[in-house]
Write a structure and sequence with these properties.
Layout: H1 3-11, H2 25-47, H3 52-87, H4 91-104
Amino acid sequence: MHDHEHSYMHAHGMAHSHGHIHENQKAVINRLARAIGHLEKVKRMVEDGYDCSEVLIQLAAVRSALDNTGKVILKDHIHHCMVDAVAAGDETAIEDLCQAVDKFMK
């Protein structure tokens, strides 16, 4: 497998070329589903003319839920993918993680 193939697969998220299971994948999917449902409610609040302060508070709650979901993904990634990458001397995976953290924590 060439490096660019690994990076390409890696860029698309949870399915990595080394084929392990992320232990928190179900929890992440459930958290995302809850955040999507919550965001739909916020959208309806705006459509129904709710007070802007209420909308902002609910939007902040969605953002917080997404940040926490990102932390779960990041921890899984460090515990599994990065352990494998370091063992394999995969500098690209480490650089990819650094770039992802920069984007996630803007």
